[in-house]
Amino acid sequence: MSLLLNLANTFLYMVNTYIVVPTADDYSLSLGAPATVCGVIIGSMAVAQVFSSVYFSAWSNKSYFKPLIFSSIMLLLGNLLYALAYDLSSIAVLIIGRLLCGLDSARAVNRRYISDCVLLKLRMKASAGFVSASALGMACGPALAGLLQTKFKIYSLTFNKNTLPGWVMAVAWLIYLIWMWISFKEPVHDFEENHFPQDSGVVGQSEHGIVQSLLISESKDDEEDERDYDESEEASVKSHEPASSISSAYKLLTPSVKCHNNILLQLAQQLSCNISSSPLSYCSSSKCHCRKLPDQYL
């Protein structure tokens, strides 16, 4: 269930990212901003995620439950700001809401949970599930926005195609928050810390029993072996400790990892450019002065 909750978090976050794509340009125009501001609205969430991945990764060293709860609460508030920006007639509130959603992205926690808490024989399936949940969220976001083509008011709150994505995602995060609070189980975090001392104790006892039956010359060799083992053990423990700075973390990356990260960066950049520009090509607002496609393509 805890793994399912992490995959659900990934799915909801990707839906939250891309649900605004079809209406971002119209929302900008309704608030008096140029249609091209839709690129800022869509991309601000991804830019803020760069910073959130740092402190959420550090937080996941101590807990998985707390950062996921905190992320869900702040995503709920961010979507409320996104929805309320229409009635407040403020493009600043709109962008702040999107930035708040990006600053509370828990995707780093989701990846960390899979790498640390899922059994090795199931890790490949869990990783495939993470990618599938992300892709499904990217597809369902714009599709869901296409279904929210209605308009009504409750008191002074406006519900239309621009604000409904924010309201719907706020409700979705509220439901997820309740589900998370009831079902998530915090895994044990001191496994690696306890693992090495237990092994070293067993090895020490066995070697101590053997040394008693060996000659003095052989015992010296065993002591040297023990010293080498302890040094390698300490190095292994240090390699599992979190990096103390960005530069030290970068030094831990191998050339292969850097190459794969660069490929992911290029793919994400191309995808974001295409998605951010798509609302401008199909903008049908009478106030929009952007270049439209010929009628036969509409």
UniProtKB/TrEMBL annotation:
It is found in: Membrane. Residues 219-242 are annotated as: Disordered. It is a multi-pass membrane protein. GO terms for molecular function: transmembrane transporter activity. It holds the Pfam family MFS_1. The chain crosses the membrane at residues 31-56, 68-85, 130-152, 164-182. Its main location: membrane. InterPro entries: MFS, MFS_Domain-Containing_Protein, MFS_trans_sf. Keywords: Membrane, Transmembrane, Transmembrane helix. Residues 220-234 have a biased composition (Acidic residues). One of its GO terms (cellular component) is membrane. This is SPX domain-containing membrane protein OsI_17046-like isoform X1. It comes from Dioscorea cayennensis subsp. rotundata (White Guinea yam). The gene is LOC120249605.
